[in-house]
Amino acid sequence: xxxxxxxxxxxxxxxxxxxxxxxxxxxxxxxxxxxxxxxxxxxxxxxxxxxxxxxxxxxxxxxxxxxxxxxxxxxxxxxxxxxxxxxxxxxxxxxxxxxxxxxxxx
Length: 106
Known about the structure:
This protein has about 110 residues and is mainly α.
């Protein structure tokens, strides 16, 4: 019955059968170890969690914008105060220079 089949054909058929059996085994093993599909309730909870995270991110971004705006206000205020102090110092230096010139002229 197997007289017309050579060794190469037997090896080929054996490897094909082995591959099919191995593939079926791996498919069954993978199906057992796969995580269960989430139910509608689980999906809803996941979506609610994502909305909570997105809302939290929006709130953080808004808080950062407010803080940046406040920081700019402080910076502008500090700049104005520094500018006034510099102007005051210039005024004092100019007075001292004028007084020094007046003394030199006398």
